[in-house]
Amino acid sequence: MDLDRYIDSIMPANEKERRRLRQRLQEFSVLDSGTGIRQLCVPLGCGIPFREHLYYRSLLMSTALVQSLYHTTHEQAAVTVDEHGLLWLTMHMHDSAYDDDFWVYLPADSEDQAVEMYETSGININDLVRYVWQFDDWRWPVPRLQFNDGPWLYLVTNDLSLSLEEAFDQLVINNTLI
């Protein structure tokens, strides 16, 4: 991506601001796997456009519980709803060996669909660590939003209706106050 084009369009006031913008924009990425799957990545303080809304980690973390599907001390699966009314199959695992928390949000059209997705798709909470973070392994359903204790928020999707550059444009446009 031509970062200078984005930086010039924002019109930085000085060279220090230009460097700060460049550093921030270098944290955005749009990758295609070559298998019909795309991954968009932004720093946690930024948002990812998804289904007509902008999603931030804080918005996902504040989803309301609709139905608990599984719960232990270190793992949970639940149907949740966000402030826009979108239902999610939400899965969380705390990896105590590395003291890391993994979160995955799979959108659902109904509560029944989320429950069915959990019960019949072969999704395993323990696979959050093993598979969901590998860009070349697509066993998990898409689209999905995911993050861990690291500084990134990811959208994994099979929507390739926008080119790589257009998808990057959307990340920049939706995070203009970076």
Low-pLDDT regions:
none
Q: What does the largest sheet look like?
A: 8 strands, antiparallel
Which structural class do the helices and strands define?
alpha+beta
Topology as a string of helices (H) and strands (E):
HHEEEEHEEEEHHEEH
Widest sheet, order of strands = 1-2-10-9-8-7-6-5
Average predicted local confidence, pLDDT: 88
Shape: elongated
Strand content: 25-35%
Helical run tally? 6
CA-CA gap between termini: 17 Å
Percent range for helical residues? Answer: 25-40%
Q: Radius of gyration from the CA trace?
A: 17 Å
What is this structure's SSE topology?
Elements (H helix, E strand, L loop, with lengths): L2 H8 L4 H11 L3 E4 L5 E6 L4 E3 L2 E3 L1 H5 L2 E8 L3 E7 L5 E9 L4 E9 L2 H10 L6 H4 L13 E4 L4 E6 L6 H11 L4
Antiparallel strand pairs: 1-2, 2-10, 3-4, 5-6, 6-7, 7-8, 8-9, 9-10
Question: What would you say this structure looks like, in words?
Answer:
The protein is 28% helix and 33% strand. It contains 6 helices and 10 strands, in the order H-H-E-E-E-E-H-E-E-E-E-H-H-E-E-H. The strands form 2 sheets. Strands 1-2-10-9-8-7-6-5 form an 8-stranded antiparallel sheet, with helices on both faces. Strands 3-4 form a two-stranded antiparallel sheet. A hairpin with a 4-residue loop joins strand 7 and strand 8. The radius of gyration is 17 Å and the shape is elongated.
Q: What is shown here, in short?
A:
This protein is of the alpha+beta class. The chain has helices at 3-10, 15-25, 57-61, 111-120, 127-130, 164-174; strands at 29-32, 38-43, 48-50, 53-55, 64-71, 75-81, 87-95, 100-108, 144-147, 152-157.
